[in-house]
Each structure stands twice: as C-alpha cells, then as structure tokens.
Amino acid sequence: MYRYAALLRGIAPSLPNMTNDKLRGVFEGLRFEHVASVLASGNLVFHSTETDAPMLERRIQRALHTELGIAGGTIIREHAELRALLDSDPFPGLTHGRGTYLTATFLKDGATAPGRLPEPPDPRTRIVGYDTGARVFLAVIDNSVPGNTPDFMSWLDKTYGKDITTRTWLTVQRIVKKLGS
C-alpha cells in the first residue's frame, strides 16, 4: 500500500462543493483507503495500491469534475518523495514567517522541469532551488511590507501554466506528518 498526498488546485473551502467532507467523499468513492484532509485548502492524503501517479492525477481530477464540478488541477506526490524533500532541508536556517515566507510550488507529473531556474521579476522573491525528486520549486518570499506582497504565484502561472500548485513549507510539513513518518 502506497501513501499519497493529493494537492488540489483552485479549492475555495467556502464554496459548498469544495468542503473537506465532499472532497474526502470523492476519494472514498474511488476506493482509496485512509483518506484524510490536511487543513481546509485542498490537501488530502490517502493510501492506494496504484503506483502510476499521472494516472491517479487524471482519475482523481475526472472524479472531482464529474461529481463536484471542480475544474482545477490535481497533483499527486508519494510519501517517500515528500519525506526526502523535507529531509533535504532546502531552507537551512530559515523559519517560515513574515519576511521569510517559505513556499513549495509543485509541478504536475509530466510537466517540463526547468532547464535553469528562472529569475523572478520581484527582488523580494528568491528561488532557492528546484528539487527534481519531488518536482518542486522552493522559494522565499519577503512579505514584511504589509499590503505589498510580491505576486509570485501569478508570475509562476504565467511562466509555467496551470499545471502547478503552491503550498507553504508549513503545509508541506503538515502533509508529511499526516502521512506518517
């Protein structure tokens, strides 16, 4: 049995069809086991015997669209990929907070990885690296000026399209914890 995290794009928990219980219901209807939500922003963990992540992404997205009308993207990562990412300590000495907002932007399985790291247009955003195992950009955003946060996610969408989703480093840590060490 494999442990997976599903990172859903475009989830607004305030909308009736995007609540955690409805999202979990779709996953349970797909016969996944140990389905659980992590926070209220489209992060689910589950167990499955299936090993083809791109196929899982397509299957889950099709069910979300058919059953709940959710058109956003689905990105799957296996527990071992996320555990290795955490163990690599990509943000040494940094703590998530104002001025050091740590983010992880996951690329959909099959998306083209960058040949070289892009240069963000705002100097308050620093790309730390790209982890090939987890297929994720790691960045630090300086949001210390209230009301003037760099629009990093919009820039990523324009640069890489909609086959990405961003999570805070704290959320990634919570997901891995929920999956179990």
Automatic annotation (TrEMBL):
Pfam families: DUF1697
Top-rank taxon: Bacteria
Protein name, UniProt field: DUF1697 domain-containing protein
Lineage start: Bacteria, Bacillati, Actinomycetota, Actinomycetes, Micrococcales
